[in-house]
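Hi,

Apologies if this is the wrong queue. I'm a grad student, and the batch job for UPF0716 protein FxsA from Streptomyces avidinii produced an output file that my downstream script rejects. I'm not sure whether the problem is my script or the file. Here is the sequence I used:
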Amino acid sequence: MTTGISTAPRRRSPARTFLPLAIAAWLILEIWLLTVVADVAGGLAVAALLAGGIVLGAVVIKRAGRRAFKNLAGTFQQAQQGQQPTPQQPGRGNGLTMLAGLLLMMPGLISDAAGLVLLLPPVRAWIGRRAARSLERKMASAPAGSFGDAFQQARIHYPDGKIVQGEVVREDRPGQQDGPDTAYRPPLAP
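Support response: The file is valid. Your script probably expects a header line. Output copied below for reference.
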């Protein structure tokens, strides 16, 4: 009896194969670079560089978090006033800034350099656009019935993002009208 399920092993993606090797190589390179800098400048200089990276990363993450909270509060105010919230441009968000702060906080000179480069607005905008295009391609090629397909369908049916106020009234259940559910309920939104 055959079930139609293949027993052949699945092919491993290149990312799953090379990502652990890349992380190990990066860690070895970070440690080697720290020892080279410690030999040239001294252990105190390396400790100062690492402490400065942690402090700078914490400041960057704190500022990006405050800016994200301010943007969220502004979006809620616009929605309460009945205005259409303005969408964020790719690369203008705070996620990449927080990633830059996290890279700065990680011990190592390569991660610090990557974090500093990511703080530059043109680099952040370029990476944001690339990430948005990649996400769009992944969503467009999502199989039917997946989360990506549902997201794409929602964008197709409601491209402007308008919210229609309303209330659902069910009278199809006999015997439910004379119970405690007959009390007045105000609508969920003003």
